[in-house]
Write a structure and sequence with these properties.
The radius of gyration is 15 Å and the shape is globular. It has helices at about 15-25, 85-95, and strands at about 10-15, 30-35, 40-50, 50-55, 75-80, 100, 105-110, 115-120. Strand 2 (about 30-35) and strand 3 form a beta hairpin. It has a single domain, classed as 2,3-Dihydroxybiphenyl 1,2-Dioxygenase, domain 1. It has about 120 residues and is α/β, with parallel strands linked by helices. A 4-stranded mixed β-sheet has the order 1-4-3-2, covered by helices on one side.
Length: about 120
Amino acid sequence: MPEIGGLLHAGLLVSDLARARTFYESVLGLVPCARPDLPYPGAWYALGDGRQLHLMQLPNPDADSVRPEHGGRDRHLAFGVHDLDALKACLDAAGVACTASRSGRAALFCRDADGNALEFVETA
């Protein structure tokens, strides 16, 4: 069996890159990093330890699908965050609805404007 060395990046489809960048940069505080010259709009973000988040403005093949209300019961990305209360304050100030983890751990779920589910887990 091959040995998988870890997750290097995750890609999300967005319909409006400018709107997505506002959320990921102004609300979540991510900083864009270098992106290769590709034939579609996008933005890359460094997440530490060489990992990245890739936003790609491309047609979403699942645009008409019905998503579960709680992001924890949908496909989602999980991010570590040092201060969950500070993140919740930023989400609240931006009018982004979020829900607490139903497992009882210190975690929040929200969705971006394109319905991509995001989890934020408080890390030490």
